[in-house]
Write a structure and sequence with these properties.
With 491 residues, the chain is an alpha/beta fold. The protein folds into 2 domains: 276 residues, Aldehyde Dehydrogenase, Chain A, domain 1 (3-Layer(aba) Sandwich), CATH 3.40.605; 176 residues, 3-Layer(aba) Sandwich (Aldehyde Dehydrogenase, Chain A, domain 2), CATH 3.40.309. 37% of the residues lie in helices and 21% in strands. Helix 1 crosses helix 7 and helix 2 packs across helix 6. The N and C termini lie far apart (81 Å). Bound molecules: succinic acid. The site of succinic acid (SIN) has 10 residues, from loops.
Length: 491
């Protein structure tokens, strides 16, 4: 099966190194599948450590002149890239739906969301400021910001576009060069972005892409090569920990956007219509496959039965199907393995006493689908409370008091995003400050945008992406001490 596009130049299947499309040295390729039907849609160059090392070497060379470019030049090139991404939104969305599964409307939204990071950092490129410290009469401390160096980026399959642009755009804006390893399930979106960066005039070697199925070989090179100064990763906490350990050997900077276990807490003083709608959006976005998707729904006892009834009725209206079909409200999950992992979490919870209100099993037939599922009679000993489900499964927990809800929310090693619904202002402040998360949505679950600092605490990672803070992760602070100011030459 092929992907028919208005702009066929976007369908690239080789590695992108030094502005050239090249095969893997071995000539090997790996298949990319459409999760809606399991059909192969492309074969992509299967890179390993050799190609990664070559990309790092050219990135190092290319950075010498890239970092010397005036900020305005870097800004204008990023702006051109943004324009091209938006001009090709429909094709990029189609590629995304075919390799990742999300419905077309969601893919179009992600392309625009991803592009917003390019636009934002094209503007921020011009706003890299230093400081002057005036502590003593005869000297001044000058603080300047410089690009950290070559960046290694490893991105996931769940957002095949936006997780790339929110790393590549700030790196390029700061004057760094970058070697990207995209998720092996979704390399085509990454390669299409690289083609558009090339067409925008981003210089050869500044942005390189090596895709491959043996992720640990590419990751191993990115984390051990002394010419890489920083590694940025979005993905699971166990893989993030491994990468951090590997980076320790050469003391690389790291940014880690890792797993989550987001609660949405519905207090009995909440507007129930708004709370149900927000919880549905957050739970089922990308069929439950985002790091900030609601993982646990916590509902106060007085409104619990009403909430479950109305939430279930809405879920029963969903239509999970091929993302290219306009009638589908939600797409498949990414792979057969994802289906069995979700099923395993559900089965283990049911064995411990959870009740299946709806769904509860893989869907039969073509593609990788799990029935949208609601579980009640769940408690904190169950896998649905402890583990990141990453699928369309909503366990609904009951709580009595505010204190109990806060304790339940915080009873996890994760700390990425949390949400709660309440119309009581003092409660809103109390709870927002007491829950241990990097991002908190109050009466709102759609919290992401290029304007805000995206990132987590605890084992959900470190560093922030987007916003005015997003460039900091790609800049080094240098202090220059300017002395001898008391000397008076020639007076
Ligand atoms: C993620 O799943 O990590 C990204 C979600 C988002 O950017 O909203």
């Amino acid at each position: 099966m092929t992907i028919e596009l208005n702009n066929p130049s976007l369908l690239q299947t080789q590695a992108f190194i030094n502005g050239q499309w090249v095969d893997a040295n071995s000539g090997e390729t790996f298949p990319v599948f459409n999760p809606a039907n399991g059909e192969e849609i492309a074969q992509v160059a299967n890179c390993v450590q050799e190609e990664t090392a070559a990309a790092i070497a050219v990135a190092k060379k290319a950075m010498e002149s890239w970092k010397e470019q005036p900020a305005k030049v870097r800004s204008e090139l990023l702006e051109k890239w943004y324009d091209l991404v938006m001009a090709n939104q429909e094709d990029l969305a189609k590629i995304m739906t075919m390799e990742q599964g999300k419905v077309l409307a969601e893919s179009r939204g992600e392309v625009a969301y991803g592009a917003s990071y390019i636009k934002w950092f094209s503007e921020e490129a011009k706003r890299i400021y230093g400081d002057v410290i005036q502590g003593t009469p005869d000297r001044r401390g000058i603080v300047i910001k410089q690009p950290v160096g070559v960046v290694g980026a490893i991105t996931p399959w769940n957002f095949p576009n936006a997780m790339i642009t929110r790393k590549v755009a700030p790196a390029l804006a700061a004057g760094c060069s970058i070697v990207l390893k995209p998720g092996s399930e979704t390399p085509l979106s990454a390669l299409a972005l690289a083609e558009l960066a090339k067409q925008a005039g981003i210089p050869d070697g500044v942005f390189n892409v090596v895709a491959g199925r043996r992720s640990s070989l590419i990751g191993g090179e990115l984390t051990s090569n002394p010419d890489v100064a920083k590694v940025t990763f979005t993905g699971s906490t166990p893989v993030g920990k491994t990468l951090m350990k590997q980076c320790a050997e050469t003391v690389k900077r790291t940014s880690m956007e890792l797993g989550g276990n987001a609660p949405v807490i519905i207090f009995d003083d909440a507007d129930l219509d708004i709370a149900i709608n927000g919880s549905l959006l957050s739970k089922f976005r990308n069929s439950g496959q985002t790091c900030i998707c609601t993982n646990r729904v916590l509902v106060q006892e007085g409104i619990y039965d009403e909430f479950v009834k109305r939430f279930s009725a809405a879920v029963n209206e969903f239509n999970f199907g091929d993302g290219l079909d306009d009638a589908s409200t939600h797409g498949p999950v990414v792979s057969a393995n994802a289906v069995s992992d979700i099923d395993d979490i559900v089965k283990r919870s049911v064995e411990k006493g959870a009740t299946v209100v709806t769904g509860g099993k893989p869907r039969e037939g073509a593609g990788f689908f799990y029935e949208p599922t609601i579980l009640t009679n769940v408690d904190d000993t169950m896998s649905v409370f402890r583990e990141e489900i990453f699928g369309p499964v909503a366990p609904i927990f009951k709580f009595k008091t505010e204190e109990e809800a806060i304790n339940m929310a915080n009873d996890t090693e994760f700390g990425l995003a949390a949400y709660f619904y309440s119309d009581n202002l003092s409660r809103v402040w109390r709870v927002a400050e007491k829950i241990d998360y990097g991002m908190v949505g109050v009466n709102e679950t759609m919290i992401s945008s290029e304007l805000i600092p995206f990132g987590g605490v605890k084992e959900s990672g470190q560093g922030r992406e987007g916003s005015k803070y997003g460039l900091d992760d790609y800049l080094e602070i240098k202090y220059v001490c300017m002395g001898g100011m008391a000397r008076n030459h020639g007076a």
